[in-house]
Amino acid sequence: MKMMWSSVGLTAAFLAGFALRGVVPGDSTAHAQAAQRVFELRTYTPAEGKLDLLHARFRNHTVRIFQRHGMTNVWYGKPMDAPLSQTTLIYMLAHQSREAAKKSWDAFRADPEWTAVAKESGVGPVKVESVFLEPTDYSPMK
Question: Which CATH architecture has domain 2-21+36-133?
Answer without folding.
Answer: 2-Layer Sandwich (3.30)
